[in-house]
Amino acid sequence: MRCFKVLLALVALNIFFSDPILAAEKNGSSAEHPWKLRVERNGVKVYNRDVEGSPIREFMGRCVVDAGLYTVGMLMLDFPTYPEWVASCKDLRSLTCRDALNCDLYYVMDLPWPVSNRDVILRANATVYPAENVIRVNCEAIPDDSRVPVPKGYVRLKAMYVKWILKELPDGKTDVTFLSWSEPGGLITPFIANMATTDFPFKSLVNLTKMVKLPRYVEAARGMNGQNYRQRMKLGL
Predict the structure, then answer these.
(1) Tens digits of residue pLDDT in 95-119
(2) What fold is seen in the domain 2-24+38-234?
(3) Whole-prediction pTM value?
C-alpha cells in the first residue's frame, strides 16, 4: 500500500515540551484523544491520535538531530530542496513573501498511480524565540486561493496545517518536532489516509537528519543567533 502513505502532509507541535511557548500549543482534546506511539526506530518516534470531528488522525514525529538550531532553521527556509528530503514532495515554492520568514507557498505531493497528486497553497510563518532557543514554523492551507490553477488530474487540499518546532538542547543538538493534519479530499477513504500517519513523518525526519549535516547549512548558520537570524532572513540573505 505504498502509494497511500503520503496523504497527510507536513509539520510540528510538541505537547511534551515543558517550555511555556510550546505548552501553549496543547489543545483541549488531548486528554480525550491521547497520542499513541506507532513507530520508534533509527532515533525517530512517530505518534498519531484521533481528532475531534474528523475521521483523519493527526500525526507527530520527533527526533533529536546532531546539528545546531540555526543549521536546522536554514534548512527549513530552503524551499527548493524540500523534494530532496520531505517524503513524496514533488514541489515546494514561494508565491509571495512578506519577508523570508513569512511566505505563501505552493506545495505538491507526488502520489503513485492510481492515487491523484495533491496540491495546496499554504500560508507559512516562522517565529524565532531567542530567549527560549526555539524556532517555530506554522503553515495553514488557504482554501479559496486561486493564484495557482489546479493542474489537470490533481486534487487540491482545502484543510491542512503543518507545524515544526525546533528547540536547541543544552548539548548543542536540536529537538525537532513535526506535526500535521489534513483532509486528503478526493476518493481516499479515512482508513487509507490514516495509513500515512506513520510512514510519511518517519521518512521525512530520517532524511532531515542527513540534510542538516550538509556543509551549506552548517556554514550558513555559523555565528548565528536569534537576533541576526531574524535580521538576515528579513534581508533575504
Answers:
(1) 999 887 899 999 999 987 778 899 9
(2) Alpha-D-Glucose-1,6-Bisphosphate; Chain A, domain 4 (3.30.530)
(3) 0.83
